[in-house]
Amino acid sequence: MSLLHGKKGLIMGVANERSIAWGISKKLSEAGAELAFTYVGDALKKRVVPLAQSLGSKIILDCNVEDEKQIEDTFSDIKKNWGNIDFVVHSVAFSDKSELSGEYLSTSRENFLNSMLISCFSFTEVARHSAPLLNKGGSLITLTYESSKIIPNYNVMGVCKSALETSTKYLARDLGKRGVRVNAISAGPIKTLAASAIGDAKFLYKWNEDHSLLKRNVNIEDIGNSALYLLSDLAAGVTGEIHYVDAGYNKVGMPDPKNIV
Ligand code: NAD
Fold first, then answer.
1. Where in the sequence numbering do the catalytic residues fall?
2. What pTM, to 2 d.p., does this model score?
3. Tens-digit pLDDT profile for the chain (261 aa)?
4. How far is CA 171 from CA 64, 106, 116, 127, 139, in A?
């Protein structure tokens, strides 16, 4: 398959081989894309560099999205190396683990602002700094998780995802004029580093597996395939969309009583 033959793009958010961003990277690379990667700090560099190199990547940059200058520098480096790009994958989120259990009511001001900065506003800054480099027909995606309903323990991150999804729509409006598309994938729960910080995560995986329409959890390959569709010309008419890849769980109003164990 060569849906992305000759296309170049940046992947932000690989931490290890279980990361959703890694599942996406593998599918984009198989489809012919040339990839650049960002990581955060030396600890993750050790894990991300070998993964990125295994897909032939030559551009691997340190970028903590808490600092706008680092986002700016990332796109300057990419411009120097490549000139223009075709896509960016934003697969980045963070919140203090201690606030991903219990009540939302206890959220601290400091963690609220930091979670919003990293998990939501960074996508807007990434869009702003990548916009001058994006070719017509280019595309941005971000990763979200169910924000229209209450999920136990998700708390401040649910609020961040709600704002991220609305940002996606406004960015799609702004960049649509330049022929650039902006979409979000709303993934079902997957066992990753970030997801393990959410209270009762094991129960969440089991519940979704038992009650999703497909009776299974999704995996990083499922998300990779959907990302490939959204970033390729197959989705040339799709923008501002929150695309669920969750085995149909979002459509369930109430689980089948016969299926409660
Ligand atoms: P992950 O831990 O593998 O990835 C999270 C990434 O965010 C890591 O690479 C980490 O380095 C990066 N990050 C954190 N703080 C950062 C900062 N200050 N600057 C730059 N990068 C930073 O976990 P994941 O589950 O693959 O998460 C990727 C995205 O998918 C997140 O937005 C997450 O909310 C979303 N998501 C995850 C699930 C799930 O169940 N795993 C479901 C839906 C959506």
1. 145, 154
2. 0.98
3. 699 999 999 999 999 999 999 999 999 999 999 999 999 999 999 999 999 999 999 999 999 999 999 999 999 999 999 999 999 999 999 999 999 999 999 999 999 999 999 999 999 999 999 999 999 999 999 999 999 999 999 999 999 999 999 999 999 999 999 999 999 999 999 999 999 999 999 999 999 999 999 999 999 999 999 999 999 999 999 999 999 999 999 999 998 888 776
4. 21, 31, 17, 8, 11
SS3 of 77-113: HHHHHHCCEEEEEECCCCCCHHHCCCCHHHCCHHHHH
Tell me which residue of 258, 224, 251, 236 sits closest to 91, measured CA to CA: 224
Ligand 1 mean position to 193 CA, how many Å? 8
Amino acid sitting at position 178:
R
Q: Out of 11, 12, 40, give the residue to mutate to test ligand 1, the one with the largest number of ligand atoms within 8 Å of its CB.
A: 40
Give Cβ neighbours of residue 171 (< 8 Å, ≥ 6 apart): 123, 124, 127, 140, 182
**Closest ligand 1 atom number to CA of residue 198:** 40
How far apart (Å, rounded) are the C-alpha atoms in residues 117 and 229?
Answer: 28
Q: Which ligand 1 atom is at minimum distance from the Cα of 145? A: 43
